[in-house]
Amino acid sequence: MPERSESTDVPVSDDVIGEIYASLRRAVVVGASPTSGKASNYVSAYLQEQGVEIVPVNPNATEVLGVPAIPSLAQVEGPIDAVVVFRPAAEALEITREAIALGAGAVWLQEGVVSAEAAATARDAGLRFVMDRCIGMTHGALGLGPGPDPEAAACAAPAALDGSRRPAR
Questions:
Q1: What does the DSSP 8-state code read for residue 70?
Q2: Residue 9 sits in which domain range?
């Protein structure tokens, strides 16, 4: 049965999420932070622990978790299984368009990041799309891995990203 986000009417099934995880070897993390304790850093580290190659995108960082940072999504070379987004919802549509142009397999907007326009654009392009869910916590909830330690750091994007703070699920 599809689950629906509290803030949108875009369904996402566990099957689609399972397909994303099954093909996830290389994830581009837009908004990856070199700062320990930030959600994007913590989730990127979790993905690395699960054997996923991360490609951090951050114009203000030189490296994240020992991996050279790339200034923009458009500059990423090679296959992209998923684009994981830790940026404001206002940027989601453009990031989704870039992901489509680069041939990404999926776009995943982190918990707290919601864009109906980005969802519609992804759907129209046939791109798998998830929003407003933590890629790490969902991985654990589906029994695909241990999931990040909820005591160590929050997976939710900061309230500043979309102007609201919803309760964790």
A1: B
A2: 3-31+74-144
